[in-house]
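ARCHIVE CARD
SHELF: 3
SLOT: left
DATA:
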Amino acid sequence: MSTTTSQDSLRKTPLHRCHLQLGAKLVPFAGYEMPVQYTSVLEEARTVRLKCGLFDVSHMGQFSVRGKDTLGAVQRVVTNDLSKLGLGQAQYNMLCNDAGGVIDDLVVYRRSDQETFICVNASNRKEDFKWMQSRLGPSVTLEDQSDETALLALQGPTAEAVLASGVDAALIKQLRYYWAVDTTVFGIPCYLSRTGYTGEDGFEIYLARDKAIQLWETLVEIGRKSGLVPAGLGARDTLRLEMGYPLHGHELSPTINPLSAGLGWVVKLNQPTHFVGWDAIKKEAEKGSARLLRGFIVQDRRIARQGYAIADENHAQIGEITSGTFSPHLNAPIALGFVNRAASDLAQVWVQVRESYVPATVVKLPFVPSHTKKNP
């Protein structure tokens, strides 16, 4: 997380006051002053897996595409197959450049027949908007709603119980994973989505910026009896890494092809509309990726940080770490990184930590089981 931006120039989410009152440690992130933790990163991560955590992710960007054929227009710039989306359904996607590199990963919602709603990463918001605006075509309008929108993420096994008294109980039970609905949450109009970045059951709640504090405080109060805690970006990063979820700027970037990152399931090359980057990704699929993403459990207490070299038994470099942290659920350091295709079948590697080489076991992702709500 960058610390070079002065505090005065950082943007603040509508919940900034709440974070100060809760004694959060605030850090610069994607141009915002964001809570990295309230008490302890590890304790907050544990609580999300066991009970429930509430995250402020209002720094994320939200776009609305409106017109007669919004799905057709958006299909020209994303890699997954939007024709499969039902009304209210969400879909994970990649926004790629002409070379097949990932400009951003995002979630696309078919909000109505006339609107496609898109959630993008905060640091890529302006670039994403310009890229889409230049390629969607004249039949639709693209609007950036980020400054008017707040986003809360309620994640964990008791998340549904926390919402139960504020949303129609039948609606909550029927809302499937990666589906969303316009409704009210504790009387506040929201776009309620059963999605998240933790691997647990949970919800992401889009709402008007000026209602964010009211909903946050209500959820914190109601959730206390269910064990809810406010959770910061540190816990969020730990949780996503335990699931092997990619983070843009780490496992994804404009120079990383989604196939190399193990995201072939998000790329549909057999659809009639050829999205931006289709030719380059097709070539990558045919020849195979030169490097592949792998997960590692480090056999040491030291963390394998981004940029650390991955080596074979002879200490010859075969790759590089992209993300690393300590997993409270495995009680060990874990990491993601790319290795050369020739070394992609190795069961053990070594990570260079300063002057020493630390052994690491290659494991199948995710590091911990997913508990997202399974659709029938």
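SLOT: right
DATA:
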Amino acid sequence: MTTIDIVPADERSAALLIEHVIWPAPLSLYGKRAKRLRELAVDHPEAAYLEFAAKVCTAQQEIFATLPHANAAPGMTRADALSTYELLAQPCWQEALTRLVQAMPAAAPAGMNEPARLVHQAQSLLQGRFGSVGQRESVFLWAALSLQWSHVAAHMPSRHDLQGPVQTRFDCPTCGSAPSASIVPGGKRGGLRYLHCPLCETRWHLVRAVCSCCGGDDEVEYWSVDEARAVVKLETCGDCHGYLKVCFADFDARADPVADDLASLHLDYEAERMGFLRTGINPFAFPADCP
């Protein structure tokens, strides 16, 4: 492992008008993620699983376009709609799950047609009790939940209510989920860092060189295996001993904080070998328990 020094956003970035929250665009994001997963699968030791994940994302994209989505009630804030379990009572995510299973019958686990059991399992996932749900069941359930949550996040009537600074938020300001990874975009947002929610697909700004778990800045280090301009690096914190990955879309515009995180599990092994604990969630590789 090689330690990499990363300075905070430069003077040019500081002058930017920062978008504190970037709302999801689910009409295209799942398809783009599927494409990225297939690119990363080429000559990858875990190519079969990356291809499986790509198929799930492709099915998500196709289902989203025709799914009869539920909308939030007028006047309801994002926090009201997405940090509670009221959406579980709506049929959208269960219909999405049925279609996912129909699209991938050979890969879907048994028991995905038992509504009461599925609601209980979905609640377990949303509460961070990942160890109580099987890995393959978790993937299908989360994929269905994400279709509903991302739609509501993108269409809430009070889109302005989170546009102020959220630099102190380490969980998603939209739905409360832990991030999958952070991403440094290119283009007009170059030099900024956003955390990415794997459930509702919202991104929110967090200043760079600050731990995405505890907010500390004294013991934050960045690591890559063999190159300074690696697309994915570890961000470790010596204060809380947590870590999360950073994806540099300014190095590769195709980078996706879910796909590139999944394809770089070797970095997770290195982080754990050094004594760090992961603080984020990948919807294709759930931890046994939430940290």
